[in-house]
Amino acid sequence: MPDQLLFAIEVTLNGLMAGVLYALVALGFVLIFKASGIFNYAQGVMALFAALTLVGIMDGQVPFEHLINAVFGTDIHGFGWEVPALLAILLTMVVMIAFAWAVNWIVLRHLVGQEPIILFMATIGLAYFLEGLGDMMWGADIKTLDVGLPQGINTTIDEATFNMFGYGFFIDNLDITATIIAAVLVAVLVAFSQYTKQGRALRAVADDHQAALSVGISLNFIWVLTWSIAGFVALVAGIMWGAKSGVQFSLSLIALKALPVLMLGGFTSIPGAIVGGLIIGVGEKLFEFLIGPLVGGATENWFAYVLALIFLVFRPQGLFGERIIERV
Amino acid sequence: MLYREAGDFKTTYREDSQTFPIRLDRTAYFLILAVAALFVPFVINDYWLNAVLLPFLIYAIAAMGLNILTGYCGQVSLGTGAFMAVGAYACYKLMTAFPDINIAIHIVLSGFITAGVGMLFGLPSLRIKGFYLAVATLAAQFFLVWLFNRVPWFYNYSASGQINAPERTLAGFRITGPETQAWAVYLFCLVFVVASAWICRNLTRGAMGRKWMAIRDMDIAAEIIGVNPLRAKLSAFGVSSFFVGISGALFFSVYLGAVEVGEAFGINKSFLVLFMVIIGGLGSILGSFLGAAFMVLLPVLLKNVLVGGLGWPTDLAAHLEYMIVGGLIIFFLIVEPHGLAQLWRITKEKLRLWPFPH
User: Any coiled-coil ranges, and where (chain B) (predicted)?
Assistant: First the structure.
């Protein structure tokens, strides 16, 4: 096979892996949007916050230590212990649930019945708040996250492809792990929403708020539940991205890419989020590979958005979204 | 007892439909203008100019622009930063290509160029709405910033990739470049601000503004009563981008002088202006000023109190600022979705009835 084609295949494979990560973040958006009609801009920052919290707990940092030091003149530098990854993940999950609860009681409860765009802007405010809070709690420096996921080049694939084509594909173990975890996560979510009582309640709320209320489903509980699940998805996404490129502010910008993914896949569809993520992942990598060198590179910054924009003009509801019907 | 319409008799239709129907408002308006134009230039110094007044004036123009689009026409845009960048780069190209032409003309022209670009990116608004559109404007944000970063023609092939404002004078006074006179720069911007506010205020209370508001309140109903959504939305994008472009041009040429596009006009700038509009008041020209003042003063104040007063490290103060801004956005959306301007409106109502509120 010609080299160029082999490169393209490798790029496509890597794009698929990146797409899985986009899909992971997009999944969190879809969950919240379906259950409460809120377009949660803060999802990306939630992933960042979850990753920061995880690193902070694992390293035994004292929350707000910079603040405490500045206010009381003390000199605290961590508890001096290290928490095992699994326990830290559980603790982070507790934090994310507390966050979900706080968001519902402090913010969303007061905004019920507002226009979607007001809610959207409120989540932008939430994103800012959370960004400041995360940095305030754990410090703004770039952190490495290592929860023991396999990393580095997958030698089996490298050797197998080398023997077959004479060119070894570079595929990161981490990406493969991410793909497997994402697949499991989606399977679990689907099973949860199909076969458990709470999952059915969740789908009922997503379908019709008032009908759900009338059969005795607690909206407040369901919303806290949805935000908690979104927090969990954010945590998984945060771990993956954090392990890949370090826990830092740009994480929330990468997570912004989930927005075009959603627009492509449709806001209300879980399969849409996944297919959209894969399309964007492959699309931007291939575009960068084929067209990028001609126009100066770094096209990954905008390709996803422009693709989604062009796509939307022809199909406003996305690939799998419900048809938008407007009534006066 | 002062704030009354009573006794202020209107004898012509013109007087009846004036912007400030209450005499005290009119007086206050002219008083503020007089102070801004005749008193401030004599006491201004470089610190006040660069830390407070110039950002306030320039952001006020941007906020007015975005307010037309978001507050009056209901189309949320997250691409303000990029449109400011269009204004800045248009101004730069014009300034270097035609050095003999007056800089004021360049700035207005960059406004028109930005209006064109804005209308182009406004086209999808005819098909998509709400947050779909908000995300679509992100495309403008990332694409335009990338374009200005990667295509050397835009920064005249300079080695650093930055654009630097060449030295220009207006009526013999240096406006851009190093060694400017503070009062001249201030007056130059003030003229643009006053003119923009005047145009915006009159556009929004005329036929065009009513069409925008009809589209905002319910687009289908507006279409049925005969508002052309194509024209209304595109004109909102055009007018809005015009002012955003002017503010971007001023931001680059007069305020910063040297610009690196990703840093100066990144997505954070878009949010900053959006926050000004939300906090100041959606659908209010006064609100744009209040919001701009608030968002410019808040960091200065926090910095002075926390870093200067309490001796905190700067990064902590910056994080706290994020939290406060985010919290305030949520607070305003919950308590008063129409922002500071609405508080002012309520105060005025109370004042008119005082001391007999029933």
Answer: none
